[in-house]
Amino acid sequence: MGRYDDIIHLPRPVCRRAKPLTGAERAAQFSPFAALSGYEAAIREAARLTEPAVELAEDGAAALDEKLRLLVENLPRRPEVTVTWFEPDEKKEGGALRVFTGRLRRVDEAAGLLLFEGGRRLPLAAVRGLESEIFPDFL
Known about the structure:
5-stranded antiparallel beta sheet, alpha+beta, rod-shaped, 3 helices, single chain
């Protein structure tokens, strides 16, 4: 005689106070849940890659200064400039190189900003590259 032979053939108990669950409702009881809230976001953040800050070499910095001088001279023409700058990451060490193209309105050297039409402001200290039609080919 087996351990459960006395109950194995009895009908399943039915609660008379509650209606029976549908198959979908029953399955929902066993669906996955977030046991650790925020865990998935933490994993995504840890997996997100950043680049180390890139410092310009001496000759690169000199070329950038010359391009900036040319931009200041040509400000009345509102030159179109493509700026590559390093944007530090807010949460991790490092950051990313960003590119923006727009018409330069002003160079505010006191505040260290490039001011563009439309209100965009980029920090001069973060600039890693400048491209414009006004630059000679050798720069």
